[in-house]
Amino acid sequence: MDSRDVVGVTLIAGLVIFMIGAVRWRLSYEHPDETSLPLMHTDKWRRAWIHIWMLVAAFVTPAGVAGIATLPGAGAFAAMAATVYAIGSAAWVVSLAFRLTIVPWAAERTATTGQIPETFPPFDAWAESLFVIQMAASYGAYALLGAAVLAGDLAPTWVGWLGVGWGVIFLVGFALTRSAGPFSPPFWAHTYTGLVGVVLLATAG
């Protein structure tokens, strides 16, 4: 297995690992805190399963994106994509750590006392801002990765145009709609990279 295969498998694995956890997500977790936190307490092991898989993917996919920058013909755009994606993933890792520690604590307190801890909402807003950084960085990295394909010979041209278009359209859409729109589900941050992984394997040697 050459380096191109390794990168392709890593990118695909990042998407698969993320989805193993994400498929158990419930939309009711996104309801107002008064109703979602008690449910999160009831589902604490389900949520732990979801977020642990997401956390693993937050390391695997960035490793794959960094690997793209090492392939022959990758160029500067690929290195920039890897940097931007890594910054977003770092923010996401911190946000996931918050979801695995502070959120369960707040959920237990809410379920026990019927009151949301006063310190929780501002910290929750802070964690949400880290999620925003991650999604914006992912879409920006998509556009840069697409540009890297167009500037070099990493993959077919259509993959490059798809990356540029996907990144720009989703970044604008996310900026306009934020968490209320179709561009916010975090699996999007692993989808184009997973597709690139498939293409790298399909066009290898």
Automatic annotation (TrEMBL):
Entry superkingdom: Bacteria
TM helices/strands, residue ranges: 6-27, 48-71, 77-98, 130-152, 158-175, 187-204
Keywords on record: Membrane, Transmembrane, Transmembrane helix
Protein name, UniProt field: Integral membrane protein
